[in-house]
Specification:
transmembrane; single chain; 2 helices; membrane; mainly alpha; 78% helix; 64 residues
Length: 64
């Protein structure tokens, strides 16, 4: 059995992946689901909010 060495992962990369898995991916996924349910306004709002969270997070990471 081999182990994966995670010591090379920076804190910024870890937080980015964590944010993606916990916030951005579910918002986009729910948005696509709503589009398939023919709820276009709700679907585009969820996808847009996922993109907005990503953009805000990238701006914060540039300032830090």
């Amino acid at each position: 059995m081999t182990y994966v060495d995670t010591s090379d992962i920076s804190a910024q990369m870890f937080i980015t992946v964590l944010l993606f898995l916990l916030i951005i991916a579910p918002l986009v996924s729910l948005g696509v689901l709503r589009l398939f349910q023919s709820r276009k306004k709700s679907g585009f709002m969820l996808i847009g909010s996922g993109v907005a969270v990503y953009v805000v997070f990238q701006m914060i990471m540039l300032l830090v």
